[in-house]
Each structure stands twice: as structure tokens, then as C-alpha cells.
Amino acid sequence: MSDATAIKVIVQEEPFDPYLVTGEHQATFDANKCGGIVTFVGTMRDYNDGHTVSTMHLDHYPGMTEKHIERVCQEAAEKWEVIDILVVHRYGKIMPSDAIVLVAVWSAHRANAFDACRFVINYLKERAPFWKREATPAGERWVEHNTKDPAAEAASAAALTKRSA
Amino acid sequence: MNVKIRYFASMRDRMGRAEDSVTVEGDTLTIADLWKKVAPGQPLPTSTLIAVNMEYTDASQKLKNGDEVAFFPPVTGG
Description:
CATH superfamily of chain A: Molybdopterin biosynthesis MoaE subunit
CATH superfamily of chain B: Beta-grasp domain
Oligomer: heterodimer
Shape of chain B: globular
CATH topology of chain B: Ubiquitin-like (UB roll)
Structural class of chain B: alpha+beta
Mean pLDDT of chain A: 92
Number of domains of chain A: 1
């Protein structure tokens, strides 16, 4: 287990620049022990399931959303030696190419940062109560399921075996 | 006892409302019982996720006074 991994979760309506936010966050702590930062930025596509998508609305369950993202981050911090985890997730109206989610992980060595980052985004998508509603030329529709990460199961399996890494 | 119910996304559209408040006599009420009260004659869609006080659970859980129950479809964040 990592010694006191710092975890910060922000769920906000306002658009954000994930690269700026990553830099600003790193300036808030002593990053001299970090040897690697892995970031995942999820952005909005202008197409899905055979339709063009002009805008998207993200609904969420305030309180439960933050609680479950924080828990996923805590689980990642128990499995891998990481120094800091930052998650920012939007709700409300989203435009194509907007950042929807940022997961940034700082660690001493890259392998732990890669693994923890993938774990956080995969489990966030599985557990955090958000729902996407897309505006298409055929009207609005709820997205019924997320695109599966083909490596998600492999990553989960790796998470179990790397617990002591 | 009294419980608050919240519906999200397509479940809110289906119910035509975002919230309910249900008061029942006695202290034995499961989530499955509660669903029958708020949606009489409608089976709970099999993919529905259920939370009580913001923790995932299943329809067999017994409720207590003041609980907040939520019904919603599979999540699609990230």
C-alpha cells in the first residue's frame, strides 16, 4: 500500500483544460519524488452508434458520484504505489472535443502510474453514476452502454496480481 | 416509515418524475416491495441498478426509516 496517496476528485459543470489543470495540480505538492505522470483524458466524439452527435448532456447523482470515484481512487492507491491521483469529471452540456474526464496519476515509476490510471478510468466508467444523453439528427437518446475497453478485464486481472508490486 | 426515492436518466423519463416519497405502516419493506408501490404492475427492468443511501445494493434489501433509494439504468460516464 502507498503511504498516504493524495486523492482529489472534482465533479463540475464548467468546461476545463485538462493539461492546464494537471499542471496547476502538480504545483500544489512536492513532485520531486515523482518519476512519471500518466494522464487519461476522455473527450466527446461527434459520432456514436452510426449517428452524428451535435451535443451531449451528462446527468449524474450528486454525492454518490463523488463517493464512488473517490472509492475507486482509494482502491487504486491500495493496489499500486502512487503519490497523487486527480480526477476531474464534467456534467451538464458537453460539446464535441470537450474534455469529459481527466484521470492523472503521479508515481515514482511509470508502471504503477499506467496501471493505476487504467484501473481508475475503467472502474469509474463501471460504477460512477453518470448518464449520457446525445443529441443526434434523429432526436435525443440516452446512451445505453459504454464502449467496452477490450483490455479492461486483462487490466483487472493484472490489478490482482500486482497488488504487492 | 418514510423513504425517499430518486429516479435518474431513462428511469426518470419512464416514471415521469424525478422523486417520490413513500410512507408505509410497520417496519418491513424491501426494495422489491417499494418498487411495486411506485410502479404497480410494472416489472423492474432487469438492467436497473439500485442504490440505498448512495451504496449499490439489490432488490432484496430491507429498508429503514429515512433511507434514500435510487433506481437508474446502467451508468455511462467517463
